[in-house]
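We give the chain.
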Amino acid sequence: MDRSPGRTPKGPPVQGDRSSSTVQLEHTTNTQEPNIHSEVQEPKESPAPPKTLAAAQLDELMAHLSDMQAEVAVKADISKKHVPGKQDHGVSLDSMLGGLEQDLQDLGIATVPKGHCASCRKPIAGKVIHALGQSWHPEHFVCTHCKEEVGFRPFFERSGVAYCPEDYHRLFSPRCAYCAAPIRDRVLTAMDQTWHPEHFFCSHCGEVFGPEGFHEKDKKPYCRKDFLAMFSPKCSGCSRPVLENYLSALDTVWHPECFVCGDCFSSFSTGSFFELDGRPFCELHYHHRRGTLCHGCGQPITGRCISAMGHKFHPEHFVCAFCLTQLNKGIFQEQNDKTYCQPCFNKLFSL
């Protein structure tokens, strides 16, 4: 915006029609004739030189200016009792200035034009505003929306017209998705919306986002810490969020280091495991919890099984405690939690 305040042109000081001259008294003495004195001669008015056409026109202009000053003074006295509308005063002043400019041009006196007001189309003789590629009277350069005088204040241009800052921001500035107020300075764009930078923060903890950025969930922004804590899948072993590498097993996810036997915490090197109550176990501890370890050798029973004395046995491990002969058909004698074949039992414990 280019604004150049002008200066109101001033005319020469107003003078009367008659000019006065200073009378000087001179005393002279004649030394050759004593007792004789000379009297001071009264000054005689010399006839004024004839006026030129230019001088006559200048006198007429000065008289016109005097009349204008008197008219302005009278209107100023009236305005103390009744304040006219701003527009009426502007119109009369513009008319006077326009008439004065025309008079000067009629007299052949060149004036320096400041252009014509883009609003009222009248010549500008006083202060001038240069804006939007045109010239304006200060009182005619107004906001397009509220019609308030912009004058020499900052303004915004849109589609070739001027707006005061308040109306421009209210009408055209982007609005913050959080507070709905116009964004006058810096604007942050995220999630297909605009925000004041200080109003774009985590929906859970309220902290403004740092260099790590944000995560979106259900059209709300979250910091990384809260997003992982609230929405990331949790490891079934340690209950912490699973961020990168993970294993999927038993209908859930695991950190690789957390997917181990529930009793001995050893990893499954072969890739196979046994499930019990939603937890993984190695074969040994799976059978231990199921009660399917052979009471004879301590190893899991995966095939045929013999149940005796509250324990389970591999068939080949269900033997006489004395002769170690396999007890066929499940016929045995028990003594002190040990199994015996009938001959050994009779030999050892008969009366």
Observations:
- The helical segments are 53-81, 86-106, 165-172, 224-231, 283-290, 342-349.
